[in-house]
Amino acid sequence: MEKEELLKRMEEAVKAYDEEEARRLAEEAIRMGLDPVEALEKGLAKGLREVGDRFGRGEAFITELIAAAQAMEAGAEILNREIERRGAAREAVGRFLIGTVEGDIHSIGKNIVATMLKAAGFEVIDIGVDVPTQTFVEKVREFKPDILGLSALMTTTMMKQKEVIEALKEAGLRDQVKVIIGGAPVTEEWAREIGADAVGLDAASAVEASLRLIGAK
Amino acid sequence: MARISESLVDECLRKMPREFEVYYRDGSKRLRIGGDAIYFGSVGRMVRIRDPETGEIRRLTLQDVEELARLADALEHVDFFTVGEPLDVPLELRGLQLLYATLRNSVKPPIVELFTAWEVRAGFEMLSAVAGGPEELRCRPIGIYISVLNSPLYFDPRIVEALIEASRCGLPIWAESGPIAGANSPITLAGTLTLNNAEVLGALVVSTLAGGDEPPPFIYGTWARSIDLRSGDISLGNPEFSLLKACTAQIARFYGLPSGGGGIITDSKTIDEQSGYEKLHTALIPALAGLNLISGMGLLAADAIASPEQLIIDDEVAALTKRILRGLRVDEERIALEEIKEVRWRGDFLGRRHTLRYGREEHWVPRLSDRSRPEAWERHGAPSLNYKAGEEVRRLLREHQPKPLPRDVEDEIKRIMKSYLREA
Predict the structure, then answer these.
(1) Chain A interface, mutation test: which of B94, B230, B235, B236, most A Cβ atoms within 10 Å?
(2) How many folded domains does chain A comprise?
(3) B96-107, pLDDT tens digit by residue?
(4) Which one of A28, A56, A86 terminates a domain?
(5) Can you give the CATH number for the domain in which A68 is found?
(6) Are B237 and B248 spatial neighbours (Cβ–Cβ below 8 Å)?
(7) How close, in Å, is residue B85 to chain A by CA atoms?
(8) CB B96: neighbour CB atoms within 10 A?
(9) Which of B111, B205, B261, B320 sits CB 3.0–4.6 Å from B43 for a disulfide?
(10) Is B59 in contact with A189 (Cβ distance < 8 A)?
(11) Is B154's CB within 8 Å of A184's CB?
(12) CA distances to A163, A190, A205, B240 from A198, in Å
């Protein structure tokens, strides 16, 4: 198989939500000695970007975007190992660390945002739900993300967003990472009050704001 | 992972009444919950309000909670109303303050939405103070406890502890699950109903066992909704929402339980055509299917924004829906063959005794809807519904005085809240 054909097929596999095919093609790319960064960006990620664009125009559904992201992830897992082995670097728009704050077990909104960020070209590190404040601080220190996303669904847990920002200040990390907050009860006013850099009022605006924050860096 | 046997569910169901009564705190009306009775109202702790003066969406305060409750007290077709998270009140006290503000400004039964056992205990004491004691409250409940479950199949320890406490206190229980089809529930409506059913029956068992010899009555609840496939946002104003509510009412009836859930609701962020048609179908379809408590009055953006003007409009939608539910009687007098014979051809019916007598009985007269001729409407400045609703908000807030709580009851409630705050 030619390189161009393989890249095209990787793109198609993502657009067909075919995880197994994406995995198989990723292995094929490595066997062929292809640059894994190129295979990821021009093959798998290109497929997801297209589904993402269709989603943005209201033509693709969220369910389809998520399925495409899952197919990309399946192939990317294999390619990422190769990238790491070669000591190469991924070409991402930016690195995004995301999690739901302590006391809050809601994952769906966070997962949708994470998926859309991936479609927009971010490298996303998802540290799950009910994440203690100190864990956010440690993970920021460890991964050095460009942006930290804090999700909270309840009026009772949104206080934790403030707590994380305070903890980042205490740890001397606040000026090294942009913070965006999201969740049903969260407002622009709340973001200003607690000193967040941006607010995602829905998934699309979270991505827009993140791209803006990256541009501002 | 806990499994509940079918026989235990059946045993709990056997202990549950098909109907029970809840009273206005001044005894002026009682709600018979169950059977064919349909009541409209609202419950929810949203943090935003659409300001009736400016139309701006802003943070909700305690004053808004008080005014909304006062409006609900004044409106004929609102039978329960406990709405708003007052952001200017300390976090620990917001739930109790909402309950107090509701009790102060309205005689209608509050829906108690409190999340911890401690808070429930304090809420129960407040209601007891108003009812004249815990036994009086048990015999003649003046409020309902609502338990909000998590999908899929997750019983949060805090929520369960609060539910157990409320059941021990003997408050009627309204347990609701709000699975989101496609997100935390199967995308199919049948799958979402199945999940909703398992969760609510789970809560029924918890409540019945906690209630001991005399478990409190139980309302089968649902806020089942779905994701918008295009965005992943949660949607409630859709036709599937109405279908889910209609089906839930039938399932609850199958079990012999009263039912209640979301309805008279819209995804629209403002008062417009979308809110108009969504409010109507989500009121009418569940009502026709027999959902006993329909909750969503005065809300916009699903349940994210409270709106005083929308509350006025929803009172109209509820009235119209109730009129449809009432149907019509067919008998000799109403078939009116004699009338038709007497008036004969080219006569008129307007001045007839028959018209006078049955006009009021059969024909609904709106408070707000405009039925005038175009010229007359223009002469009156071509007022929009929205404008008239705003005028009505201002008039009611100016004129309506709710029946106050006795001074000693007020003092007692304040004492309960203070002592709660000390322990919290």
Answers:
(1) B230
(2) 2
(3) 999 999 999 999
(4) A86
(5) 1.10.1240.10
(6) no
(7) 9
(8) 23
(9) B111
(10) yes
(11) no
(12) 16, 10, 10, 34
Using an 8 Å CB-CB cutoff, list chain B residues near A54: none
Cβ within 8 Å, pair B184-A155? no
Output the CA–CA distances (angstroms, integers) from residue A6 to A48, A52, A144, B78, B412, in the order listed: 16, 21, 33, 64, 76
Residue B85 with chain A: CB contacts under 8 Å: 155
Question: Within this chain, do residues A100 and A78 fall inside the same structural domain, yes or no?
Answer: no
Find, in chain A, the residue whose alpha carbon is nearest to that of B302.
Answer: A184
Spell B167-179 as b/e; 16+ CB within 10 A means b.
Answer: bbbbbbbbbbbbb
Element (H, E) at B221: strand B218-222
Domain that includes residue A128, residue range: 95-216
Task: Mark whether A104 and A202 lie in a shared domain.
Answer: yes
Q: pLDDT digits over A109-168, tens only?
A: 898 899 889 888 899 999 999 999 999 999 999 999 999 999 998 888 899 999 999 999
Record: contact B47-A202, CB cut-off 8 A: no
B338 touches chain A (CB under 8 A): no
How close does chain A come to B230, measured CA to CA in Å?
4
Residue A55 shares a structural domain with residue A82? yes
Q: Tell me whether A201 touches chain B (CB under 8 Å).
A: no
Residue B40 host element (H or E): strand B39-44
How far is Cα A214 from Cα B312, in angstroms, rounded to an integer?
46
At residue A104, the pLDDT reads: 85
User: Strand (E) positions, A52-211?
Assistant: 95-100, 123-126, 147-151, 178-182, 198-200
Other C-beta atoms within 10 Å of B322: how many?
17
* Vertex A75: Cα angle to A70 and A81 (nearest 5): 125
Mutate to test the interface with B, among A156, A188, A192 (most CBs of B within 10 A): A156
Q: Write the pLDDT tens digit of every residue in B320-379.
A: 999 999 999 999 999 999 999 999 888 899 989 999 999 999 999 999 999 999 999 999
In this complex, do B229 and A62 lie within 8 Å of one another by their Cβ atoms?
yes
Residues with pLDDT less than 70, chain B: none
Domains of chain B: residue spans and CATH = 6-326+405-418 (3.20.20.480)
User: Is A25 in the same domain as A132?
Assistant: no
